[in-house]
Amino acid sequence: MISRKFFAITAATALLAIGVAACGDDDESDSTSGSSGDTPTGLEGTIRIDGSSTVAPLSEAVAEGFQQENPDVRVTVGTSGTSGGFEKFCAGETDFSDASRAIEPEEEALCKKGGVETEAVQVAVDALTVVGNPENPVTCLTVDQLAEIWGPDTTATSWADVPDLDAEYDEELARYGPGTDSGTFDYFTDAVNGEEGVQTKDYNNVGEDDNATVTGVTGDPGGIGYFGYSFFVENEGTIKAFEIDGGDGCVAPSVETAQDGSYAPLARPLYLYPSTDVFEDEVQTAFIDYYLANVNSVAESLGFIPLTDAQLTESEDTLASLEGK
After folding, report:
1. What is the per-residue pLDDT for 35?
2. Which of 86, 159, 183, 323 could form a disulfide with 169 if both were Cys (CB 3.0 to 4.6 A apart)?
C-alpha cells in the first residue's frame, strides 16, 4: 500500500515545482522527473543528509523540490536517528544532519575532534504526540501518569494500574516507541522521566520506523506510543492523540499550541545542522538557502508545524552567521 506520506511529499513537490515554473520562463518541461532541462542551473553534485526520522520527510520533500530545479544535483536523505546522524555528521560522512533535539556536549566534542563546526538551524516546530487506540476512552494524561507508564521502574501492566485516569480502562498496556538512537526517544524520556535515555525496557522498540508504532497501536486496544506530530496528522482517524497536562490543564497537540508553547512539555524545535564547510561549496550553499526559503510551505503541506516569522528570521540570522565564518 502506498502511504499517505508519499502523496503528501508528491503534493509538496508539486507546490515547489509550480513556484519554480511561475518564476521561470513560459516553456514547460514534460519530463516525469520534474527536471528543468530547458533551463539548466549549472549546479552539479551530491548532498548527503542523515539523522532524525521525524525530520526526514521534511528534508526529503525539500530535496525533491531542489532536485527538480537542479536536475544534476542528487540529494540523499538517511534515517539513522538523531544520535546516529550526528555520528556520521561529526565524522564528515554527511553534509547536513537532521535532528529532533539539540546537539549534546559529547557530540559537539566529537564534531570538534573531527574538524566539523556547526550550529543548529531550526526548520520546524513539533508537538511530540502521545497516541493510543481509538477504543481507549482516556482523553488526557498528566506527565506523572506518562511517567507511571514509561518510567524505568514502572510496575504498570494494565491501564487500570495508572492512577487517577479520567476514564476507567482495564486493557493490558502495550507500549510502542523509538530506539535509543532517536532524538524523539531522548526528548521524551527527558521531558517525562526527568533523565534522557531513561525508560522502561518493557516496550516494543520500533527503531526509526514510526509507522510500526501506528500499526501496533491501531492493532491493540491497550496500545500507546509517541512520535512527531506529522505522523499523527498522517494517520489521524486510525489513532487518537491524548491531550497532555503539563501542570496547567489538558492541552491537545496542534499547530497553535506547539507554536505558543502551551503544549508543555512536549512542544519542541526541529533542526537541520549544516557544517560550515558547506559554504565553501556552491551546491550545498544553494541547497540550504533553498531549504529555508521553502520550508514553511513544505511543512504545512506535510502536516509539520511551520516556523513563526520570528523563528524563521532567527534561523536566517543563524545561517548568515555560519556563512560568514
Report:
1. 36
2. 159
**Exposure class string for 30-66: b at 16+ Cβ within 10 A, else e:** eeeebbbeeeeeebebebbbbbbbbbbbbbbbbbbbb
Q: How far is CA 55 from CA 39, 70, 224, in A?
A: 31, 22, 22
Tell me which residue of 321, 323, 319, 324 sits closest to 121, measured CA to CA.
Answer: 319
List the beta strands (DSSP E) in 52-119.
Answer: 73-77, 96-99
CB neighbour list of residue 26: distance below 8 Å, 6 or more residues apart = none
What span, in angstroms and rounded, lies between the C-alpha atoms of 250 and 255?
Answer: 16
Backbone φ/ψ region at 92: left (φ over 0), alpha (ψ -120 to 50), beta:
left
Q: Specify the DSSP class assigned to residue 244.
A: E
| Helix 183-193 / helix 143-150 crossing angle, nearest 10 deg | 120
Give the tens place of pLDDT for each residue, 116-130.
999 999 999 999 999
pLDDT (mean) for 72-98: 97
Question: Among candidates 318, 218, 311, 237, which has minimal Cα distance to 274?
Answer: 318
Domains of the chain and any CATH numbers: 4-125+268-323 (3.40.190.10), 129-265 (3.40.190.10)
- Residue 69: the pLDDT is 96
Is residue 11 within 8 A of residue 299, CB to CB? The reply is: no
Q: What is the mean pLDDT of residues 150-156?
A: 97
